[in-house]
Amino acid sequence: MEAAGVARALVAELTERGETVAVAESLTGGLVVAELVGVPGASAVVRGGVVAYATPVKASVLGVDADLLAERGAVDPEVARQMAAGVRIALAVDDVPATWGISTTGVAGPDPQDGQPVGTVFIGIAGASGVEAVELHLDGDRRAIRRAVVSELLTRLRSRLQRVE
Fold first, then answer.
1. Using CA atoms, how far apart are residues 131 and 112, in angstroms rounded to an integer?
2. Which residue among 103, 107, 124, 126 is least packed, with the fewest CB closer than 10 Å?
C-alpha cells in the first residue's frame, strides 16, 4: 500500500481508538506529518510535528541526550527512540502526552553522515508500553529514500497498533 493509503487507514484506526500521534522528523523534514494531515479528519488524531533537522534541536526541543548526540551522532537507534519518546511529551496537550510518538533520523544523501552510509535510517515508535527503533537500509536517490521512510514508518506504526489491540 502506498503512503497515502497507509495514512488514511492509520488516521481511521487512531480515530476509532481515540488515540493521538506526534511526529519528530529529521531526514524526512516534515513529509511524515504532511502525509498524515493530508487525510481528512486528521486533526482529531495528529498532535503536530517537530522538524528537528539540526542535531542540536534534537536535544533542545525533543530532549535527546546531548552526550549521546556528541558521542554517536544523530544517525543512531537510541536517538530515534529518544526522539519518539520526546515528541510525545513535547506535543502534550493539557499535560497529557500523545498516545504515540514516531520519529525519523538517518542519511538521505548525497553524502554519508556520522559515519553512516547513505540509506541508513532509524525510525522510532514510542507508546505507553515502550519504545522501539527499527534500522532500515534503503536504496535510491535522496527523494526515493525520504519517501520510502514515510511509507515504512506509517506501515510499522499501523502494525504496532494492531499488536496492542
1. 26
2. 107
Q: Which residues does 35 contact at the CB level (< 8 Å), separation at least 6?
A: 3, 4, 7, 150, 154
Q: How many beta carbons lie within 10 A of that of residue 37, not counting itself?
A: 17
Q: What is the mean pLDDT of residues 99-109?
A: 98
CA distances from 117 to 27, 110, 114, 120 (A): 14, 9, 9, 6
C-alpha cell, 154: 506509517
The per-residue pLDDT for range 63-97, each reduced to its tens digit, is: 999 999 999 999 999 999 999 999 999 999 999 99
How far is residue 160's CA from residue 19's CA, in Å, rounded to a whole number?
A: 13
Which triple of cell numbers denotes residue 116? 553512516
The angle subtended at Cα 152 by Cα 95 and Cα 42, nearest 5°, is 45
- Residue 152 contacts residue 136 (beta carbons within 8 Å): yes
